[in-house]
Amino acid sequence: MHYDVIVIGGGNGGLSVGATLAKKGKKICLLERHNIPGGCGTSFRRGRFEFEVALHQLSSVGTEESPGPTRKIFEELGIMDQLDLFTLDSLYRVVLPGKVDVTMPTDVNEAIVYLSKKFPEYTEQIKDFYNLAFSLFKEANEIQNVSVDKISKEKFPIYFKYALKTAQEVLDEFFEDKNLQLCLNAYWSFMGTPPSIFPFIILAGNISVYMKFKPKYLKGGSQVISQALAEVIRNNNGEVKFNCGAKKIILENGKAVGVITEDEEKLTADVIVSNISPTATYFDLLEPKNVPKEAVKYLSNFKPSISALTCFIGLDCAPEDIGIKESMNVFYKSADVNEDFLKANIIEIEDDPIIFTCYTIDDPTVSPKGTSIITAGCIKYGKPWLELSPEKYYETKYQCANSIVDRIEVNYPGFREHIEEVSVATPLTHMRYLNTPEGCVYGYEQDLKSTGFFYPNKSMIEKLEFTGGFVGLCGFSPNYIQGYKKANEILANYWNGGI
């Protein structure tokens, strides 16, 4: 069977590129090894609870009057009316017992007033910090549409000064108070790298898009988007093959021309798009003799990102019964985030920041009346988990889950006795379902050496393209946007100019 484009992997980026190309008239075949679309964009059921796997808040949506890029894409694809979205009242809550307990407003001016009352000696610095974040994000977007010969320090002074600085460097430039820094840098924990190596330009982007377009809650969870995008492909003369991964990419004269599926079916196409990592694409899907020599050296510089240890918990009580008031919470044990992050390299739960989300706060109908749905956990590297024996693995898994519950109990006394259902996902769980190295959930490490200018998004094989979190910014909306842009780039490069 011949297609215009074969897409390998049905994660957010793959679904977006496939749906966009299908909507614009191209015959698409999307291959997905799992039995449902979405990758991390999915949900699962345990008992009477349906748990969201990964989506906490959706960014870049905006409103009908002031639409963000994600809304514009969904409207163009015809799925916006299938999504029941509403705006959240806060960004997140940060807690350091006895020192910090702040709930950040979504409006930047309200945030400045709120933080200034708690840290009055830093009022001007808080204003300047937010101005910098918004200005850097603005310049970063503008520079993408400017030809290289017109990019200069004079035209983009903020970008030139801050594009290669870490979040920690910029926070230290503005604030000596580590407690205040905690209030402003919480997004590091959602990108998997500590402030000491986390690019400030990504933090600035997170702050800007969530405050400009406001965080959104999606009724039904991320599976609704994944299913809707898959249906766009199907409804536009395309195919989505589940339980059907790619086994090999076929090359002819050095060009990608097709795929052999895990079912040994041969499919051909004018263009192949990989939504899996470049590492897996080159080294698992190509014959060793066909792997570009430059790929071996180049990709050796990229390491898998961090994974996660997550407890999916169903409670037999309402959130207010045990004092849960905010949906998104980050619980710290100290203000030294960079030092605490080192614990991500060991299995045990010690001083790790705990990310705690109660979906029932945002949507009381997400679970049966009088119950609550919680996800709580921390980011952990997968390598130590790979070294466990099968017998030790299960024992360790539940010991760690117990430690997470202990940490939650400190903030919400009585939490443990209301647990009705719990499912635990370790880095090995992510590795099993996502098929990523060491169960990584953020592509390659989100540090200054692997992001921004340095994303490995240029293919070394003709007619092979990449999309997804390994070759661009991670996150739900960033991958929808990236997939959409990649689709239009493919149309321009292969069809408008001819193949």
From TrEMBL:
Residues 14-373 form the Amine oxidase domain. The keyword Isomerase does not apply. The keyword NAD applies. Keywords: FAD, Flavoprotein, NAD, NADP, Signal. Signal peptide: none annotated. GO terms for molecular function: oxidoreductase activity. Pfam families: Amino_oxidase. SUPFAM superfamilies: FAD/NAD(P)-binding domain (SSF51905). It comes from the Bacteria. This is NAD(P)/FAD-dependent oxidoreductase. It comes from Clostridium botulinum.
